[in-house]
Write a structure and sequence with these properties.
Blueprint: H1 2-18, H2 27-40, E1 43-44, E2 50-51, E3 55-60, H3 62-67, H4 72-90, E4 92-93, E5 99-104, E6 113-118, E7 129-132, E8 138-141, E9 146-149, E10 156-157, E11 168-172, E12 177-181, E13 188-190, E14 193-195, E15 199-200, E16 206-209, E17 212-217
Parallel strand pairs: 2-4, 3-5, 9-10
Antiparallel strand pairs: 1-2, 3-6, 7-8, 7-17, 9-11, 11-12, 12-15, 13-14, 13-16, 16-17
């Protein structure tokens, strides 16, 4: 299921990016190699979780690198999302944020490429956390407090009349992220249940602020 899901995502999203490039390498080739590196370099930690690389350097010939220059940001973003989706399908875990960068290797011929995978620890030591908003936008959670509310000063500003000015906050702990309601009018829900202060978040939890629902991803 994981590879089939990846193929669909890459065909639907990454190939749209490819139509704007003129390189000899198709982005779907990069995606397939990237997830193969995840499979080939997985390890098991002391908790029995299957850990995979989260930091990838894609090596390209000078000409191929130049062909992707205008779509670099879009391409790397889609490859990151494809890697995240594949990890969810396969039950893999990351120890830090997923990053992909394109780099030049002068020894490579056109049409050839390589990928250097690494397991790179998050600076917080609690892995990679993020919120996926209804728009699909991803908000990375770092080692600072993330606030949610209607105020423009909030980290995540929600235009929802059911959301309080300062509705909730998410804070990093020793080995997890925790959400706390800030005495909001309509409360903060996790998977449909109202929570108070210091509720530990698990991967895939759905957080509801008023009528707005976001997904928490731990890796």
């Amino acid at each position: 299921m994981g590879m089939q899901s990846l193929e669909r995502r890459l065909e639907r999203m990454v190939e749209g990016v490819f139509r704007r490039s003129r390189g000899s390498i198709r982005p779907i080739e990069l995606g397939r190699r990237l997830v193969r590196e995840m499979d080939d370099n997985r390890t098991v930690d002391v908790k029995g979780r299957r850990m995979v690389p989260n930091d990838f350097t894609v090596l390209l010939s000078p000409a191929d690198h130049a062909s992707f220059e205008e779509i670099d940001d879009a391409l790397t973003t889609e490859l990151i999302e494809a890697a995240r989706e594949y990890a969810r399908e396969e039950g893999y875990h990351f120890i830090g944020p997923v990053t992909v960068r394109l780099a030049v290797d002068n020894d490579l011929k056109n049409g050839r490429f390589g990928i250097l995978p690494q397991l790179k620890q998050a600076t917080t030591g609690i892995g990679a956390g993020s919120l996926v908003l209804p728009s699909g936008q991803r908000v990375a959670l770092g080692d600072q407090t993330t606030t949610i509310g209607r105020l423009p000063s909030c980290t995540v500003t929600v235009e929802d009349t059911n959301v309080s000015r300062e509705h909730a906050k998410i804070e990093p702990g020793t080995n997890a992220y925790y959400v706390s309601d800030l005495n909001s009018t309509n409360g903060t829900l996790v998977n449909g249940s109202r929570v108070g202060s210091g509720h530990r978040l698990a991967d895939g939890d759905i957080l509801s602020f008023g009528a707005t629902h976001v997904r928490f991803e731990a890796s």
